Amino acid sequence: MTVAIDLGVTQTKIYTSGKCRKFDSLVVEPPLHQAPPSVGLSGIEIGYSARTFYVGEKAAFDGEAANYPVRPQALDFHDDVRWCAALAALEETGPFDIYSGLPVFEYSAYKNAFEKHMTRMWEFSFGGRDKKVEVASVVVIPQGAGAYYSAVLDPSGKVTNQTRVQGKVLTLDLGGRTLNGVTMQGGKFRANGSFTLFKGMVNVYNNLRKLLYLTYGTPLSVYEVGVALRAKLLMIGNTPMDLTNDIKRAAASVWQEIRDGLELELPNWRTYHEILLAGASGFFLEEFEEFFEGIPVTLLENAEYANVRGYGYYGELQRSRRGAVPSGK
Ligand SMILES: Nc1ncnc2c1ncn2[C@@H]1O[C@H](COP(=O)(O)OP(=O)(O)OP(=O)(O)O)[C@@H](O)[C@H]1O
Ligand SMILES: [Mg+2]
Predict the structure, then answer these.
(1) Which ligand 1 atom sits nearest the alpha carbon of residue 304?
(2) 5, 7, 11, 22: which to mutate for ligand 1, most atoms within 8 A of CB?
(3) Ligand 2 centre from 315 Cα, in Å?
(4) Are 192 and 265 in contact (CB under 8 A)?
């Protein structure tokens, strides 16, 4: 069975049989001396490698920004835990052929090591129940390339947009930790013109959190800042405060750093035919239209899931090319 998993640092997305799902990616390991928090529908409890972890909303309540890991090496232990949570969500034992992605920078450094590490029998517990799930194969493409495939293929892997396939297209996928720029030309990934900027929504969250504390004296958790950011509102007592300007202020320095990064990484941006925007907060990048003077900028439909859908569509393309199911059901 073919499945797509997008291991985002802030949100893990799953695509299977035409359906998308997600959970918050934050992983928290409670200190050993504490009783484990009660986990309801809002949290996922995973036992892995003889330790217990909480993934998702429950973890987000307990965690702070510092818990958003900066992946220091090829194989991040928290990714293993998120992977287990994603496998548990599939509610089957496999074997699965999984299509996934890594940020461009990590893709070039770790693609093979990551694929090898993730391909195996996974043993863990989910909500106290033991699970054994077989991952038969893993194929990793750059994050952002997934979003591109979602914009040129249909769910069965057939090309739906020849113009885009023939042209030179840049995808900008704004995530929590990273912004990935991916150049696709003639339907092929080009390393030249593809890059990772280590700037994302977590930087905006942190700025906003500081700003709200200084303005209203309210120390919010990262989770609460996320809620406020999405609602563009903060309740102070019974009064809703409009945060539109605070969000603009919090984001301004991050957008400037991204602009500087694009200047540096994309001296040839004038040679592109189209810019595609992806990621849950990809819509924020619409203000970059000015930067790309005259080049069409398109926010992808359901941009939050563009990457994971595209991994799935790409998987179908590969399957149809091989003309057979490689393994699994
Ligand atoms: N409607 C919204 N408005 C603003 N921000 C949002 C909205 N929905 C989600 N977000 C935030 O956007 C950020 C990016 O989400 P996304 O799922 O694209 O990142 P990710 O894939 O987890 O990160 P990365 O790609 O860096 O690993 C998250 O921090 C998420 O909380
Ligand atoms: Mg992402």
Answers:
(1) 18
(2) 11
(3) 18
(4) no
User: The tokens of 7 are what?
Assistant: 């291991």
The phi and psi torsions of 43 (rounded to 5 degrees) equal: -140, 155
Residue 14 φ then ψ, to 5°:
-130, 135
Q: Which two tokens stand for residue 132?
A: 């054994």
**Residue 7 · residue 79 · CB < 8 Å:** yes
pTM of this structure: 0.91
Model confidence at 74, in pLDDT bands (50, 70, 90)? low
Q: How confident is the model at residue 39 (pLDDT cuts 50, 70, 90)?
A: very low
- Helix, strand, coil distribution of the chain in percent, nearest 5: 40, 30, 30
Separation CA 175–CA 189 (nearest Å): 20
Nearest CA to ligand 1 atom 5: 281
Atom of ligand 1 lying closest to residue 279 CA:
18
User: Which residue owns the Cα nearest ligand 1 atom 31?
Assistant: 226
Exposure string of 80-115, with b = 16+ CB inside 10 Å and e = fewer, is: bbbbbbbbbbbeeebbbbbbbbbbbbbbeebbeebb
Centre of ligand 1 from the C-alpha of residue 217, in Å:
26
Burial class of 172 by CB neighbour count within 10 A (0 to 12, 13 to 18, 19+): buried
From ligand 2's centre to the CA of 175, what distance in Å?
Answer: 4
- Ligand found nearest the CA of 222: 1
